[in-house]
Amino acid sequence: MWLTWALITIVIAGYFGYTLFLSDDKSEFIVGPASHGHYQIEMACETCHTDAFGGPEILQDACENCHADELKASRDDHPKKKFTNPRNAELLSLVDARQCIACHTEHQEEQTRAMGVTLAEDFCYHCHQEVGENRPSHKDLAYDSCQSAGCHNFHDNRALYENFLVENANKPWLNQISKLKAANFSHYKAPKPEISSKSETTAREAVAIVNDKIASHSDIHQQWAASVHANIQLDCAGCHLIEAGKSESRSWVEKPGIESCESCHAQEVAGFTSGKHGMRLSKKLSKALTPMSPTLARLDFHEQAQHQQLSCNSCHNVHDLNVQVAAAESCLNCHADEHSRAYQASAHADLWQAEISGEAEAGTGVSCATCHMPRVESNRYVDKARTIKEVKVQHNQNATLRPNEKMIRPICMQCHSLEFSIDALADETLIKNNFSTQPAVHIESIDWAMKREQ
Amino acid sequence: MLKKVAIACVVTATLVGAVACSQQTEVSAPAASKGIEPKLFTDSLFAVMNADRANYTKLVVARLGPKGSGVVKPDEHWEEFDNGTLLPAQMFRAGSEAVAEVTDEFTYSLQSLWPIGKQNGPKTPLEKEGLQYVVDNPGENFYGEETLGDVTYYTGVYADVAVSEACTSCHNDHKDSPKTDFKIGEVMGGVVIRVPI
After folding, report:
1. Rounded to two decimals, what is the model's pTM?
2. Is B100 within 8 Å of A81 when comparing Cβ atoms?
3. Identity of the residue in B100, B118, B196 whose CB atom sits nearest the CB atom of A85
């Protein structure tokens, strides 16, 4: 009898031991589905669980490894460093705000709400209950209403803090049709030298290969000839002839991967692999995953797009490099949720149609990318005399997606007032119909802030 | 019998010797591991903090701010401006948070009985007592011990005195300030320094 039990124990231990240490598929150990932010990468377990014997601090390091820069850029109102002073010991016994997992516990599907929050919705009250006493406007508000759209966010309040509300009060709902900033290229790495080589033989071979390809793909050559790549003299070899190891010779690659784009467009690829389009290709993952595909996603997608795999060329035609196609058409070829399907009938789409038909000035249309892949301006210090103003396209489409108040300053307020933007983003119906009507919701935060000014 | 007396003598001598040695150890051990007195430690830390804080207020904010050359813009929301710089209280807190990332051998915070941000009011009974003490007893510090979580701390509370017009006008004019008649030289709050013991 004991022999049977021992055998069963050994078999079970062997199975789980093999799965844990040797197998690539560790799905047996997933205690529950991951949140919408992480489900794509849940099979790269060691990305977060970096040490089998670590405690919360190990997970905290993993969270910060991917999210620290984003939190810093958001001017996080509740960073860990605000809670480490021992005077907070009593508050920390209620919510240990030093650890991300105190509020965002993974693999807890039933408890997980918007933003991956797993705490009860009244969590603000535990530390800020005096607000209800000190501010008449907040007196009768529900304990769980602080984080309603348009009022407060736990991390990012750049568009919601009181001074900003006051400074931007009483403006017309539509200020002007703003012109989109043109992206510039000063942050791109210089393209690799073309088919020149230290070795004349390999250079001659490369020229022969390229000429042969041009002869057999004249349509592609024509597309390329009218592109930005042709303008900067980056020819076929720049992307298709890949160095083979340490050898000076290069071999022709029919479909170059993301690495080829990354050699010049590092910033764009970094953005792409930080968001949901490309996170499965991120170098921060513990193991390589296949590219994201609509079949793996939780949103609605068109049937014909189900088996697409996402890479740079999913949105960009790599030969003509038509960014107008990439800005709307490419998105709508895949996305079939209510918001996306309503785009073509929206006022934003009318402006976009006017731009691409040439009736309106370049930069005045509102495409999907205008809102979800905005142009980001920054100053790059070169030397004492020179600071370059860079305009880049944010290729992480999740950077401003949620909470949606992140869109207010960099996107909505380029044309609209703060008040209209807050109300519009708080109106679920308006989001679904792609902002085709006026907001039916009014958030009173600006009214209350102005009342305190009197 | 003689043997028993001899054994008793040896045992007694051994015990006396052991006690003597242990007493000697007790006397010498603290001397070796005593280190700096908590009070001297917190007093020294405060001296540095106070000097840096006064200098930042006078030499940067007052001199280069809007009431000086106007080169920098001290503002609560300093990140909004290319030439924005932290208000003195924010600068002090930024230092405190940066120190907390390096060590937990001591912690410090700036608090007040009249805080603009309510989270900067006293939270523990000792903080309340200490902040009131430095207001009621100008020129004196407050010391005590308290247990927070499961750690006992030596806590020093030091008066935070208004050193320039920048301090008083900012607090007196702020819509969230519970006190609006601060004068230069008055105690506006306190620096609370804690050392785990």
Report:
1. 0.87
2. yes
3. B100
